Amino acid sequence: MAEFKLPDLGEGITEADVLKVYVSPGDTVAVDQPIVEIETEKATLDVPSGVAGTVTAVLVQAGQTIPVGQPLIEVGPTGEAAPVSPGGAPAAVPAPPAPTAQQTPTPAPASEPAPASPAPAPPAPARATPAAQQAQSAAAQPATPGRVTPAAPSVRKLAREVGVEIGTVTGSGPGGRITDDDVKRAARERSAAPPPAPTAAGEQRRGFEVRALPDFTQWGGVTREPLSRLRRTVARNMAQSWAEIPHVHLYDRADITAMEELRQQFKERAKAAGGNLTISVMMLKVIAAALRAHPRLNASLDVDSNELILKQYIHLGVAVDTDRGLVVPKIEDVDQKNIIELSVELNGIAERARTNALTLDEMRGSTFTVTNLGSFGIGHFDPIINWPEVAVLGLGRAEQTAVWDAERKTWEPRLLMPLSLGHDHRVIDGADGARFLTWIVEAIKNPLLMALEG
To answer: Could you tell me the pTM of the whole model?
Structure first.
């Protein structure tokens, strides 16, 4: 009998939500066959099996939050029958094993009260059948995280939408089954509950004092909105970046008049290839060339060894606004692609980001990030560095501006775009950042050469 567990997903990911289970007891699985669909802090992805044979037990269920190392399925030799109940149906899914010292579930966020310990089930009558005992036990105690919880898929979806952990809800239906009303009641109770008292461990965070929030209900009504997994991740990463990296921001404006003319010239060719030629796409090419000329901005700082890791590849992260929050997928080897290829790739990545179809690999490994708020009417702004990178470039809204032409002694209308460079002052001095930004501004004045490069 072999057991397949949720593998290490890398980059500090410790848990995931199970969205779908593709196999059932009695199914035959092969190595690399998808068995569950999960959602992590960064992406939605299928988990392929690492073992082959006949599924004898499925140990997880849609709606659960499971830690890395949680057993997903048990597999026996091909042809081995799955255990069945006395009625002939496949045996019920067993509860996942209790966490060990090496497999400790992530604690609940400090902003939410921890679920109460379940009350012990009353002893069953001497003549009660095993099925009756099971129903009495399920009805007498609330569900706990990590345990298979009886609830319909529509109920689990509702719980995810309102931010309620299904495993903490007490079911009022037959056999302890959870209903829509149970989920709504749990959401109301959590919203009405007072904020938890600060713990000793929460008093200090990265050297700063963390004060407890006041009770806002003393001044009026409030509503508590749970943070999604993605939003919690963004909050944590941004706080880490801002607290650990001494940010310096430099600002300039680039004359993109010639770049816009080039965009108009090639946009139909990009459209025919399946892309959308935008100024952002063309800027990727310029930035990649700038990073080749200034490799210290395409690096990461190893604080432990006091070394700067200079990367020989240029994978640009592109910030994308989605309904779930900000995500930063990457485009690989930007310096080796022309603008038509980049337009097609960026178009596809942006669409996958908005439909929650990005892979985990697409969400990690970038070396420098570009973020554009121009479409929102924003000019200069202060972007936060995407750790462990050391620099980020913000693109603002381009505007027609009258510029004095000293040679012709006249005012000329030019299209100027604000640029905001954020860099890590531990490894990049202000002069280095200024040279990088000036290089970009000068390169934009003659974009044709880079547009035609392979």
So the answer is: 0.60
